[in-house]
Amino acid sequence: MKPLSQEPAFSGTDQHVALAHAVIAQVGGLILGKERQVRLAFACLLARGHLLIEDLPGMGKTTLAHGLASALGLSFRRIQFTSDLLPADIVGVSIYQPETRDFRFHPGPVFTQLLLADELNRATPKTQGALLEAMEEHQVTCDGVTHALPDPYFVIATQNPRQQHGTYPLPESQLDRFLMRIDMGYPDRVAERELLKGRDRRDLLDTLKPVLDGARLAVLQGQVRAVRASDALLDYIQDLIAASRRSPHFVHGLSPRAGLALLAAARAWALLAGRDMVLPEDVQDVALSVMAHRLPPADARATPMALVAELIGSVPIP
Question: What domains sit in the chain, N to C, each tagged with a CATH number?
Fold first, then answer.
């Protein structure tokens, strides 16, 4: 498997892929030592999915979202989820206008291209559910009227570890809307020293200039769909799905939608490597981020990431 530090083998004539790597490099300059997390986040966007980040406060989750929005020139809004937040605070509300004697819809912060749903699991399940239609259908419905969301539409949600006080577990239907789940992790000693010696990350955010625009991002997303997957590669994905369904370590196996998510993420990863065909290594590189949050362990004391990593390692490549 090719290490992440190795330069991708894309053609120098493919300016869009080159610009994609410029985005990754620019955001990686904000969050030092987290190249893999940045690349996974961008691959998630290219695959037209949504991203869930679970980690402790202060690990760079918000900086990652801000950095991607700035490097891509996307409109950006942030919602701080709390226990008293209401669905109308997210999607918007219709307010009666006395002068016209009708109701006018006032859009909520969900109407943006990149939405940061911060500490999503601090809100009640009813409020969490307000994001479901937006994430799945790219639209919201208020008082029977459907309102389209901007394109592209990308949700980055953060959640605190479940053992922290004041959190509500995300329901499985909500978790399944996220193409990937990642954690940031502590920086290594070298990266942390650079953070301590360098400029404030908020000051660096103000200096970022868009590398891609909406049109070029749409081209890249279209190229992801064109990346080829052989029958043997599809066999491998199906073997992973079947193994999850047979395993006694999980409450249930992967759904067909999870299989589609795994294929879409692998296609995006292959494109970032400069290839027009998915390799088994691409599937392996993204599988943990796509599968782990969809496979609840049968033993609540077990570590889901370790179980899923063991599962991936047990399935041979055709």
Answer: 227-318 (1.10.8.80)
- Give which of 32, 27, 55 is closest to 43, Cα–Cα: 27
Provide the pLDDT confidence category of residue 39 given band limits of 50, 70 and 90. Answer: very high
Token pair of 184 as six digits: 């940031």
For residue 159, the model assigns a pLDDT of: 86
Q: How many CB atoms lie within 10 A of CB 155?
A: 22
Q: Which residues pair with 144 in a beta bridge?
A: none
Residue 317 is classified by DSSP as -
> Would you say 34 and 187 are in contact if contact means Cβ atoms under 8 Å apart?
yes
Share of the chain above pLDDT 70, in %: 94
- Give the C-alpha separation, 39 to 95, whole Å: 42
Least confident of 107-116, 149-158, 210-219, 236-245: 210-219
Prior bond to 297 cis, omega within 30?
no
Q: Assign 2 a pLDDT band (cuts: 50, 70, 90).
A: very low
What is the DSSP track for 207-276? Answer: H---SS-HHHHHHHHHHHHHSB--HHHHHHHHHHHHHHHH-TTBSS---HHHHHHHHHHHHHHHHHTT-S
- CA 282 and chain centroid, separation: 17
Spatial separation of the C-alpha atoms in residues 35 and 31, rounded to whole Å: 8
Nearest to 269 by CA among 254, 256, 283: 283
What would the mean pLDDT of 262-290 be, rounded to a whole number? 95
CB 45 within 8 A of CB 23: no
Rounded-to-10 torsion of CA 262, 265, 271, 276: 20
Amino acid at 63: T
